[in-house]
Amino acid sequence: MLKKKTQAQIKYPFPFRKNIYADELKTFILQSIDSYEMISDKMKENMKKASFDKFVSYAFPDADREGLMQIASFILWGFVFDDHYQHSPAAEVLHMIQRSVEILSGGNLRNDDNDCLKKAFNFTQNVSKVAGKDWVYRFAYINKDTFDGIMKEYWYTGTSGYPPLRSYEAMREHTSAGYVFCALAEISANAVLPVALPFHPAINRLTQLACLMIGLCNDIFSVEKERNQGDNMNVILVLEHEHSYAAAEAVQVAIDQHNELLEEFLAIKNNLPDFGAQKNTVEKYIRGIEYLLEGHLNWFTDSNNKRYQ
């Protein structure tokens, strides 16, 4: 009942489309999951139930075949990293983060690098041909921020403590991987942003708003699973703890926050400054974000997605 009510209140005024290579993508992702030597058969089985192909084909509908497969490779890599190292010792996680950022920045492999790092290297080599070196360097920076958020969350994971709401929101902005997805949307939309454009106040805020909405959407639809698992890193659970809200109250607060962010997103989009020669690129990028938000929501509400159920 609560889930149906939630779905009715979170909607985007954006079109929904599926990538034309969706069927080929499904086969590619299943084969890619099997290619990870470092993860267990049980983890592979669970990942195959997550319908990652639907997320990628829904969220990045304009990507050409090569771009779509590169996007899928990295998104799968991120989920494998998160699941595999979720309960690993801090020193091991930190080492993997440092090496991942080095490799994503263009660093070479070492003899002792594991399967996960080798796949990050392959992605970087391949995506540079699609997006260019400037994008690759910015993407590495984005991932560093994401990993920094993960390490900050690490100290709360598996404990009975909750972070203050403001601290959690600051972490969640990055741990949602929204900035990673938005960067990948540049590839899908054929709108790789020139070096300085992502930092323009309007573009920067639109991207930030998208990331915040992605984080809230994720937390809202996954809260019951995370509650049952004893997790504490979810905005609903933090709201319940900090403000003594009932579950339904906390969910409603999160929904209201999400919808306020959406209103701001639309207001900025409808009042953009003149970007001159970059106008077309900006419009394609924003459209790419809209597809991302709509596709992400559809993936969460898909009954075949078992990852958050």
TrEMBL record:
Q: Which Pfam families match?
A: Terpene_syn_C_2
**Cofactor(s) named in the record:** Mg(2+)
Q: Enumerate the InterPro entries for this protein.
A: Isoprenoid_synthase_dom_sf, Terpene_cyclase-like_2
The EC code for this enzyme is 4.2.3.-
Keyword set includes Magnesium: yes
Q: Give the record's keywords alphabetically.
A: Lyase, Magnesium, Metal-binding
Q: Which GO terms describe its molecular function?
A: metal ion binding; terpene synthase activity
Question: Enzyme class, one word?
Answer: lyase
Could you tell me the superkingdom of the organism this chain comes from? Bacteria
Family to which this protein belongs: Belongs to the terpene synthase family.
Q: What is this protein called?
A: Terpene synthase
Question: What is the species of this protein?
Answer: Chitinophaga solisilvae
**Lineage of this protein's species?**
Bacteria, Pseudomonadati, Bacteroidota, Chitinophagia, Chitinophagales
